[in-house]
Amino acid sequence: MKKSFLFLLIIGLLSCEGPEPRKPVKVKSGSFITESIERNKRLLAVEEAMIKKIIAQDSLHTYFPTADGSWYFYTQKNTEISQTPQTDDLVTFTYNVLTFANDTIYTEEEKGIITYKVDKQELFPGLQNAIKLLKEGEQATFLFPSSMAYGYLGDKNKIGVNVPVKTNIHILKIAPNKEVNIP
């Protein structure tokens, strides 16, 4: 009896090791992210080539580059004022959306007159940046690569996946933010 008790005690003590951590079934190598980055770089290069071709074929307009990778030209310029919209200003504007082949996706009438609080409301990235470049009364046409337009999701309506767009923007009014600072 003593021997069996001692035997069970030894077996019990030897089997009381801590839990062994589970090893991962699959190790991720990051190749999906690397492939996605490369695919996006190739797509951007193709879209930039399309934009450069449009600019080269358009001898009537002078195009200006933006910091975010889009290009634009003025159809109506305001030289009397110099103020562009700042964060929290209210901007009233209209715009349309076209393909690079000038096929209309959305008309100004479909989009309507928009009142936008700068940097505080959702618009597609290129449009948010474009509004900050224009002054009251100005009109400009912008060429946006898909990454600055509706991206890989599209608008889930008329604009598909990775579609670069052309947009005509008309700034109707800029109402500066008049926030009162109380000391």
- CA radius of gyration: 29 Å
Identify the CATH class of the domain at 62-175.
Alpha Beta
Give the H and E element order.
HHEEEEHEHEE
Number of strands: 7
Distance between the termini: 89 Å
Oligomer: single chain
As residue ranges, the low-confidence spans are none
Mean of pLDDT: 89
Q: Please bin the fraction of helical residues.
A: 25-40%
Number of helices: 4
What does this protein look like?
The chain has helices at residues 2-14, 31-57, 108-111, 125-131; strands at 64-65, 71-76, 90-98, 104-106, 114-117, 139-144, 165-175. With 183 residues, the protein is an alpha+beta fold. It has a domain at 62-175: Chitinase A, domain 3 (Roll). Strands 1, 2, 3, 4, 5, 6 and 7 form a seven-stranded antiparallel β-sheet that branches. A hairpin with a 5-residue loop joins strand 3 and strand 4 (104-106). The longest helix has 27 residues, at 31-57.
